[in-house]
Design a protein that fits this description.
Number of helices of chain B: 6
Distance between the termini of chain A: 17 Å
CATH class of the largest domain in chain B: Mainly Beta
Radius of gyration of chain B: 20 Å
Largest sheet of chain B: 7 strands, mixed
Number of domains of chain B: 2
CATH topology of the largest domain in chain B: Cyclophilin
Radius of gyration of chain A: 20 Å
Oligomer: heterodimer
Helix content of chain B: 25-40%
CATH architecture of the largest domain in chain B: Beta Barrel
Strand content of chain B: 25-35%
Shape of chain A: globular
Strand order of the largest sheet of chain B: 7-6-13-5-12-9-10
Number of strands of chain A: 20
Strand order of the largest sheet of chain A: 11-18-15-16-13-12-19
Structural class of chain A: alpha+beta
Number of domains of chain A: 2
Order of helices and strands of chain B: EEHEEHHEHHEEEEEEEEH
Structural class of chain B: alpha+beta
Number of strands of chain B: 13
Largest interface: A-B, 43 and 47 residues
Strand content of chain A: 25-35%
Distance between the termini of chain B: 46 Å
Helix content of chain A: 10-25%
Chain lengths: 309, 229
């Protein structure tokens, strides 16, 4: 069915869980900046977790649905729409995501998923290369995007157990595995509080605080970086690379954010702050495992609430 | 070989500390050995200059002794043994890239000539007379980092990067030269442009070039450039 975009919002793109296997060709992993919110949004309407949904950034869109449908909005909260629970929209109705009340990015899923072609193994939009998603670009006012017909019946009144939700905060404590050049920077990363600047985007979150001084080491030979890599350019203000991270980088790598904590960063808006704590690789894997366990419980809980029509 | 984590997502294998063909040969031989091992846990293998970064799915390996990171390290040690000391053959494939030098196609060529104290013709002759080796693909999809730029053509990057470099631009940044496959911001000095597409998302592989390829640039006229398009 057709969904008409009356207002696109600041940057609304189609995203999924990203592309794998193309980093060696310079193609970033991409996909949702907050993959957990996207997975939950899909689960709530009975979709496979990796179906494409709309990633809404800072200001929301206004959409008109051709027919009745189940949708869900997860991640950032917007006035006028319920969060973290499926709800029904009716044919001809307009849905407007109002003022943002929490977070930075919301994921709007629709039962059946949005209908966009798969390019290089993914359906997400990589804006710098005009690759994938809806015509390789962010949605514009007046666009018509389609969803894949797939009617399911959702029963009863219920909502997700709060304990399954990511623990978003406007000043999260984020876990970091030390990077190759960690020893060249002292303890500043773990002592200071950093502020998110407005020059942040899907490629990276630029932080500002007491600059991290590099006390030793010379020019580095470029090597692979990835979403989560904390790199420090010469001005000492760290950048956390996010979903659309370039594949190679030459700046010192002071650390790497644990995969399980990426959603906490994904929801930081300009002006929010972050602190870091040091953990080991094994601890980071344990966090990821716990996250998967929480999602598995939710999947199980949903299985008797959603069935095919 | 030195192994270290890239967070909880990858293991970085360092096989040298220089940008040279010998190091690249060892990097590519090791990357090929990791690929041949065919591990289900490995999602991406990224060779670049002196390192091979191996991305893995920790969920697949979480029950291995010592955890996922240790399991990948063991796999990489085995691959290093198999790859041995024999470097991969470089330049097995040579690609010729036609370039329209100067004018609107290469707006910085006069500046480069001035900096290198030579004529524009000499810049073109030197740049198109050399053999280059692809050391890595990255930065943007399909962007080749080329080694082999003649020393006489070394030019510093621009102080302020251009906000938009046209697709196909051939540029010099310090001791490297490369081609921008798509419009992007960029700080290198642009000396020409190719009509050839270096990144074709609907083809397999999408990137025209891969590490280890040999590249030559061939001068073309503006007329031929427009005909190609």
């Amino acid at each position: 069915m057709e969904i008409k975009v009356h207002h696109a919002g600041m940057q609304t793109t189609v995203q999924d869980l990203g592309r794998r296997g193309h980093l060696a060709q310079g193609v970033p992993i991409g996909g949702a900046v907050d993959p957990v919110a996207l997975r939950l949004a899909n689960l709530l309407v009975g979709n496979a977790e990796d179906l494409p949904a709309l990633e809404v950034t800072l200001t929301g869109p206004e959409l008109e649905f051709e027919k009745d449908a189940w949708i869900a909005v997860c991640g950032a909260r917007f006035e006028g729409v319920p969060s973290w629970k499926p709800f029904r929209v009716y044919g001809g109705d307009r849905l407007r995501l109002g003022s943002r009340t929490q977070g930075c990015r919301a994921y709007l899923s629709i039962c059946g998923g949005f209908d966009v072609p798969r390019v290089m193994g993914g359906r997400g939009t990589f804006l710098p290369a005009a690759l994938g998603g809806f015509e390789g670009r962010a949605l514009r006012d007046g666009d018509i995007i389609r969803s894949v017909p797939s009617e399911r019946v959702l029963s009863g009144h219920w909502s997700i157990d709060e304990r399954v939700l990511p623990r978003y905060s406007r000043e999260p404590l984020v876990s970091v595995v030390p990077g190759s050049q960690a020893g060249e920077f002292g303890e500043g990363l773990y002592r200071e509080r950093f502020t998110v600047t407005a020059r942040s985007n899907r490629m990276g979150i630029r932080l500002e605080g007491t600059p991290l001084a590099r006390t030793s080491g010379g020019e580095l030979i470029s090597t692979a970086v990835a979403p989560g890599t904390l790199q420090v350019p010469p001005d000492g203000n760290p950048i956390v690379l996010m979903a659309d991270a370039q594949t190679l980088g030459g700046y010192p790598r002071v650390g790497h954010v644990a995969t399980a904590d990426i959603p906490l960063l994904a929801q930081l808006a300009p002006g929010d702050a972050v602190r870091f704590k040091r953990i080991t690789v094994a601890q980071a894997h344990e966090l990821a495992r716990a996250e998967e366990h929480r999602l598995a419980l939710l999947r199980q809980g949903l299985s008797d609430k959603i069935r095919r029509a | 070989m030195r192994l270290e984590p890239l967070g909880d997502v990858a293991v970085v294998a360092t096989l040298g500390d220089a940008i040279d063909p010998g190091t690249l040969g060892r990097v590519l031989a090791f990357a090929a050995a990791v690929d041949a091992a065919g591990s289900k846990a490995v999602t991406d293998i990224v060779p670049a200059y002196a390192t091979v970064t191996v991305f893995y799915d920790s969920a697949v390996l979480q029950d291995q002794p010592g955890g996922a990171y240790e399991a990948v390290c063991r796999l990489l040690e085995t691959c290093a043994t198999k790859a041995g000391a024999a470097p991969a053959a470089l330049g097995a494939r040579t690609l010729e890239i036609p370039v329209c030098y100067g004018e609107d196609y290469g707006p910085d060529i006069d500046l480069v000539a001035e900096h290198c104290r030579m004529g524009v013709d000499e810049v073109i002759a030197l740049h198109s007379g050399a053999d280059y080796l692809v050391h890595a693909i990255g930065f943007t999809p399909g962007f080749p980092y080329l080694g082999g730029l003649p020393d006489a053509l070394k030019v510093p990057r621009k102080d302020t990067p251009r906000s938009r470099v046209p697709a196909g631009s051939v540029a010099i940044g310090n001791s490297q030269t490369g081609v921008y496959p798509m419009p992007s911001p960029g700080g290198w000095q642009i000396i020409g442009r190719t009509p050839m597409q270096l990144f074709r998302p609907l083809k397999e592989p999408a990137s025209l070039l891969k590490p280890g390829d040999r590249v030559r640039f061939r001068p073309m006229s503006p007329g031929d450039f427009e005909l190609w398009r």
